[in-house]
Amino acid sequence: MVSHMKTTIHIPDSLFNEARKVANQEKTTLKALVEEGLRKVVAEHRDRKPEAFKLRQAAFKGQGLQPHLAGVTWDQILDLSYEGRGG
To answer: C-alpha distances in angstroms, 74 versus 35, 54, 57, 69, 70?
Structure first.
């Protein structure tokens, strides 16, 4: 069973008038024209491969993870970074 959603859209008068002319020329309804356009846009977005996420180089000059921190949790590292600062 196909369900339908009723909605209201706001488009500029000039676009609405052009769309009505196209619908009349194509002997179709404005509703059908809007559905066709939405289907094309949705398909275009669905078929588009997302750009692969690439983490930027954000290294700092240093020695990396210090030996005394090997095996500690991130929470412990965070606690150490705030040690002696505030309550």
So the answer is: 50, 23, 21, 10, 11
Is 22 part of a structural domain of the chain? yes
- Judged against a pLDDT cut of 90, whether residue 22 lies above it is answered with yes
Please count the residues of the chain.
87
64, pLDDT greater than 80: no
Evaluate whether residue 19 is within a structural domain.
yes
Q: What is the mean pLDDT of the chain?
A: 88
Q: What is the SS3 string spanning the chain?
A: CCCCCCCCCCCCHHHHHHHHHHHHHCCCCHHHHHHHHHHHHHHHHHHCCCCCCCCCCCCCCCCCCCHHHCCCCHHHHHHHHCCCCCC
> What domain range includes position 21?
13-47
Determine, yes or no, domain membership for 63.
no
Write down the pLDDT at residue 62. 77
Q: Is residue 28 part of a domain?
A: yes
